Amino acid sequence: FERLKQGLSKTRDSLVGRIDRLVLGKKEIDADTLEGLEEILITADIGVQTTVELIRTLEQRLSRNELKDGAALKEALKEEILKRVVRDAAPLDTTAASPFVIMVIGVNGVGKTTTIGKLAARYCQQGKRVVLAAGDTFRAAAAEQLQAWGERAGVDVVRHQEGADPSAVVFDGIKAAVARKADILIVDTAGRLHTKVNLMEELKKVRRIMGRELPGAPHETLLVLDAATGQNAISQARLFKEAAEVSGIALTKLDGTAKGGIVVAICNEFRIPVRYIGVGEGVEDLRDFDPAQFVEALFQ
Ligand code: GDP
Questions:
Q1: Residue 261 near residue 46 (C-beta atoms within 8 A)
Q2: 189 among the known binding-site residues?
Q3: In whole angstroms, how far apart are CA 89 and each of 31, 120, 184, 217, 282?
Q4: Pocket lining: 110 vs ligand 1, CB cutoff 6 Å
Q5: How far apart are the C-alpha atoms of 80 and 71, rounded to whole Å?
Q6: Contact 55, 40 (CB under 8 A)
Q7: I need a surface site. Which of 38, 112, 158, 215 has the fewest CB within 10 A?
Q8: Is 110 labeled as ligand-binding?
Q9: Predicted complex ipTM
């Protein structure tokens, strides 16, 4: 918990630190206070839609005389934020199939490979057999990086040469996972966004191949988003949601950014469970997203 708290420190300063300065000691809440609060929420990347909803709810609670002072306002905000992040929260259950196939998608640089490496290490530690497939064949560095993570975690990595057909990698990955009786297969994919249409088409193709080779696969389509990109993460979520049947989200780089409010926006606006959050580069820095703990760490 302390590590999570430390990871969220910049967001806590920019969000809750400013809220404290605005409301603490206030004996009475008025429209100006709520206006100030609205501005803080928006600049902390909670998003316009979610901010408007939160402020409206707080106004209603104020008119019911529930918010007597600044401390009550802060507490009410915390409650309302928790309600919105807890709604669709669900950890990823990988026991539903074997091998359980996780297709990892997202734009280059968001932390896809790192997240896959962290997941591989974590599942290995749990005694699960893991295979990785290097489906991003456009960048040799991507496959190499995945291989390095795989070696560190002690898991097999299926990779082809640079420029190979990603579908062939997926095909071999599934074959290897089945032959080795793996519990989990994690498939990396390309993320060159400048060819948006091609990228989405390619993801669909990879998905089709998976389903053909192993009915039901992928069992999870995990979208990785970089929290530090703030509103960009929201547009990426929108784009991938439309094109790629996203079933879960991992939000990386929450450490080092003041834009952690984005977690609230993503939970509230997309109705896709946030499965993991990244709070550092180390292997232990990928956390299951625990809404209550997250809100507690933010507000403490
Ligand atoms: P990819 O292009 O999406 O595969 O991105 P990478 O996995 O190569 O990650 C890009 C950079 O982000 C690397 O330097 C990672 O160490 C870093 N990174 C990934 N996740 C986190 C995180 O949760 N916190 C921090 N601070 N850095 C991260």
A1: yes
A2: yes
A3: 32, 22, 22, 22, 24
A4: yes
A5: 14
A6: no
A7: 215
A8: yes
A9: 0.99
| DSSP letter assigned to residue 13 | I
Distance CA 217, CA 102 (A): 8
Which amino acid, 52? V
Ligand 1 atom nearest to 136, measured from its CA: 4
Decide: helix, strand or coil at residue 69.
Answer: coil
Please give the Cα distance from 116 to 112 (Å, whole number): 6
- Ligand 1 centroid–CA 176 distance in Å is 27
Q: What's the pLDDT tens digit per position in 152-189?
A: 999 999 999 999 999 999 999 999 999 999 999 999 99
In which element (H, E) is residue 72 found? helix 70-86
Residue 277 CA: nearest ligand 1 atom is 23
| Distance (Å, whole) CA 169 – CA 202 | 13
Q: Is the pTM of this model over 0.90?
A: yes
- Tokens 């409650």 — which residue? 79
Question: Strand ranges (DSSP E) for the chain?
Answer: 100-105, 130-134, 156-158, 184-188, 220-226, 248-252, 274-278, 286-288
Candidates 90, 93, 112; CA nearest to 103 is 112
Rg, the chain, Cα only: 21
